[in-house]
Structures are given as C-alpha cells and as structure tokens.
Specification:
124 residues; mainly alpha; 5 helices
Length: 124
C-alpha cells in the first residue's frame, strides 16, 4: 500500500499531537545513556595520601639519616623495597588509566593525583 501524504502516514501510525510520551519510550531513551559515575573527593584524597607516603619513602632512600636510607640494614631494605614497589604500582596504574581513557575516570583521578604527589615530593 502506497501512502501519499504526511497526514496519512500519521493516521496510519495512530499519532496524536497532544499525546505525552509513554513510560516505555522514556525508559528506552534513559536506558540508552551511559550511567554517570560521580567523582568524589575521597579518590583524590586517597591518591594524594598514597602519593605522599610513596614520595616520602623514595625521598628517604637518599637521605643518610633516615631510618630506611643508605646503610640502614634490614629496615632500610624493607622500606626501600616498599617505596620502589609503590612507585612501580603507581606508574602501572597511571598507564592503565591512560590506556582505558574515559572508561576508567575514577582510576585516572586516583593515579594522576598519586603521581603528582610523588613527583612534587621527589622534586622538592
């Protein structure tokens, strides 16, 4: 069947100009959108505190009078190992966050603040 006019098409699909959208239509539109992940200050705070701890550990490795500095024995070995492991995990987390991009905004928030704090402490 061939329909000639726009009005005939509207009549065929039973369109009503004053009709409100159905609940099914609203739900289908809302379901097609990606859920928004709220960003919290807790991730930034956790990244900053973790970065400060790792940065202090790395900075203390070079200071002679620190408990985990050069010539400090087993405690120095454990503290230095933890600091280096923390740096490795921080860099790995930042690389994963950069690779995932917008799929992992929370990881990016944590990792960027974490590396920022580490670099600030190492450069100070």
């Amino acid at each position: 069947m061939y329909i000639n006019s726009f009005d005939e098409r509207l009549e065929r699909i039973d369109w009503q100009p004053s009709a409100v959208p159905t609940r099914h239509m609203i739900d289908s539109v809302l379901a097609s959108r990606l859920p928004v992940q709220p960003r919290s200050a807790m991730l930034s705070l956790a990244g900053a505190v973790t970065g400060i701890l790792i940065g202090v550990g790395l900075k203390g490795m070079t200071v002679a009078d620190s408990p985990w500095g050069p010539d400090s024995g087993l405690a120095g070995l454990a503290g230095s190992g933890l600091a280096l492991a923390g740096l490795a995990v921080s860099v790995a987390a930042a690389l994963v966050a950069a690779a995932k991009g917008s799929k992992a905004p929370r990881l990016m928030q944590f990792a960027s603040i974490n590396l920022l704090m580490i670099s600030v402490l190492l450069l100070s």
